[in-house]
Amino acid sequence: MATKKSEETGAMARIPYPEPDNLEKEVRAQLEGLAPLNIFLMLAHGGGLLRSFVDLGTYLLFKTRLDPVLREIAIIRVGVLSASKYEVFQHERIGRQLGMKSDLLNAIHDGPESPCLTPLQGLVIRYTDEVVRNVRASDGLFHLLKDQLSIRPLQELTVTIGYYMMVCRFLENFEVDLEEDGQTEGLKVRR
């Protein structure tokens, strides 16, 4: 598959997407079992990297105790702070699948003081902002959120923020194109 040009921006990825026929058999088989997303195709250059990347992402999306709406709020906020249109687009789509309305999605862009957010949603955005910008959240915010969520969901939130910071940096450095049809066909996330 040649480098895909984004319909919206006319941009092209920094390096060509690999031709599936040229990939290792194991990587090609894994790619065939995934949603047809350009990020996965670009990651296929890395061989076994794709499996590890997908395994952690799958765990974070489907197996944590963290409320899925709070998870998507954090992921979208990371995308906003990282100026990653791909990440924001894909996870706003997932958010809508979870029932998130436009006012909530817009509030994530506006920040933690938006009147559309619940107090807990605002705390998640504040925490995400501090982790992305400062690495370490303030003690007060950390303990306030720990009391609201409990330890395991707070750990899951923190790992989710870090994982999607990595995702955004990969997307932006390789200039991964949004899929031509703008779809996340095959990627279904439920509440």
List the helices and strands and how they pair.
Layout lengths: L24 H8 L5 H6 L5 H14 L5 H14 L3 H13 L4 H9 L8 H16 L4 H11 L1 H24 L17
Helix pairs in contact: 4-5, 4-7, 4-9, 7-8, 8-9
**Ends: how far apart?**
34 Å
CATH architecture of one domain: Up-down Bundle
Number of strands: 0
| Low confidence ranges | 5-9
Biggest pleated sheet: none
Counted by DSSP, the helix tally is 9
Instruction: Please tell me the overall pLDDT.
Output: 91
Order of helices and strands: HHHHHHHHH
Query: How much strand?
Result: under 5%
- Which overall shape is indicated by the principal axes computed on the Cα atoms? elongated
Looking at CATH, which topology of one domain would you report?
AhpD-like
Rounded to an integer, what's the Rg over CA atoms?
17 Å
Query: According to CATH, what is the class of one domain?
Result: Mainly Alpha
Question: Which structural class fits the helix and strand makeup?
Answer: mainly alpha
Q: Helix amount, in percent?
A: 55-70%
CATH superfamily annotation of one domain: AhpD-like
